[in-house]
Amino acid sequence: MIKLTFKIFLIFLFLSIIKSEDKESLALNYFMQGQYLMNQGNYALAIIEFQDALLLDPNAGTLHISIAEAYRNIGKDQRSLNHCMIALELNPKDVEALKMIGQLFISQKNFEEAEKYFLSLNEIDPENLDFLYTLADLSRLKKQWNTAIDYYIQIYKVNSLAINSLQQALQISISTGNMNRSDEICELLIDNDPDNLDLLETQRDIALYNKDFNKALTVIFKIEKKQGPSSKIFIQKSSLYEQLKKSKLAIEVMYDAFEYDSLNIEILQRLVTLLMDQELNEDAVLINKRIIDHFSDDSRGYINFALMALRNKKPEDAIGILGKKSQQFLDDFMIQYLLGTSYYQVDDYNNAELYLSNALKIFPDSRNTKHNLALIYDIKNEWEKSDQLYLELIDSDSLDAQAFNNYAYSLVERNENIEFALELSKSAISISPTSAPYLDTIGWIYFKMNRLDEAMKYIKDSLSIDKNNPIIREHLDKVIKAKSELKYQKID
Q1: Cβ burial 199-211 (10 Å sphere, 16+ → b, else e)
Q2: SS3 helix, strand, coil % of the chain, rounded to 5?
Q3: Which of 61, 168, 278, 316 has the fewest C-beta atoms lying within 10 Å of its C-beta?
Q4: Maximum CA pair distance of the chain?
């Protein structure tokens, strides 16, 4: 320690007697020697040379930066930071010092502090892409997605060749579900590359996600102009017109598609569906015949026929065509379901059970199928099966008012567990308080419990909603009669 202090004393003594120009030359010599050692990877000796230069020129910020870099390379971050701070005191706008401090904080995962220094760098040189990229990356690390997007867009505005920055911004916006920003970025990308079909398709998908159907339609017209018509584009345009409540245009587009390709199953099916929705049944039948004639192995033509038959209250016609195809489409849920439903409507409960059971095997989560099967089991007095289905429906959806009501009505009709039926019925009413059937059910339960005033109230409420329902009227008549008999009994 005494030897080191004596050495420093000798250096200061030497400095006091040499000229200033000689000091500068000597300092430069130490600095160059230090840089040489740094380049050789000998950071410890480089630091000694830089420190000797610093004794000659203590206000040289460059020397502090060089020492800081050497300390950083040997893992002494705090000493590196100290010298950077000294450089900043000498020059608050020292770019190298600001950069190194920012990088030191990044290596320590102190992203908040790092951002402060790169923001200062950005103020000094707002068009420096490296600083902007670093700020964008820091925002990503902090999960400040919008800020990161802003920086990537700023990079593109500084240099329009930096397309990758927009691509990164688009990736962030899509992955974080920020589709409004995605649309904004897509516009910039398309302005740069207007003939890029992939970008146009991405913009279309973003517009669809945002439910901006007018914009999606505009983009699809652009795509069609560039790549020509296709069945896919016709169907997309038709779907969008339908979303925009322009049913006539939706059908017109599909007739254009029909002229384009009259034997495309997707076009034919789309056209039939639209015609059925608009109740243009004669036209729908004609197009659907084409599906059946040319695509006999596709179930959709037969399903369309059955749906139209059931809509026209002709379940026999549905049975006529589906019955012949049930074995061919044994694994088709809709064929089996519609056939079971059709048999149910003609009171053929055995066949209804058979085909609805087939449908349930294909799609075990079908609630409609379970509801219909439960009703059939009720009619056939197979209550163990119906109860099981009702319980499954209630357990899997506590808001299934129909399951609560039908189970309650089943119990009261067989005069079983009336108290439980009342609780089920109350649940149905709480979910759907203005349903005429549900009000009638609870009223009928109260009647069975001889609580006639409550029965009267609920059944009257039910009849006020569904005035022409004969079952509700019959229930009300029975309540009125019971109240009348009770009144005469009191008089006697």
Answers
A1: bbebbbbbbbeee
A2: 80, 0, 20
A3: 316
A4: 139
Q: Domain 146-228: what homologous superfamily?
A: Tetratricopeptide repeat domain (1.25.40.10)
pLDDT tens series, the chain, 492 aa: 444 444 444 344 444 444 445 656 776 777 787 687 878 888 788 778 777 777 777 777 788 888 878 888 888 889 888 888 988 889 999 999 899 999 999 999 999 999 999 999 999 999 999 999 999 999 999 999 999 999 999 999 999 999 999 999 999 999 999 998 999 999 999 999 998 999 999 999 999 999 999 999 999 999 999 999 999 999 999 999 999 999 999 999 999 999 999 999 999 999 999 999 999 999 999 999 999 999 999 999 999 999 999 999 999 999 999 999 999 999 999 999 999 999 999 999 999 999 999 999 999 999 999 999 999 999 999 999 999 999 999 999 999 999 999 999 999 999 999 999 999 999 999 999 999 999 999 999 999 999 999 999 999 999 999 998 999 999 999 999 988 877 766 555
- DSSP sequence for 403-465: HHHHHHHHHHHTT--HHHHHHHHHHHHHH-TT-HHHHHHHHHHHHHTT-HHHHHHHHHHHHHH
| DSSP of 133-180 | HHHHHHHHHTT-HHHHHHHHHHHHHH-TT-HHHHHHHHHHHHHTT-HH
Q: How far apart are CA 366 and CA 333, in angstroms?
A: 10
Tell which CATH classification among 3.30.750.24, 1.25.40.10, 3.20.20.80, 3.30.980.40 matches the domain 22-125: 1.25.40.10
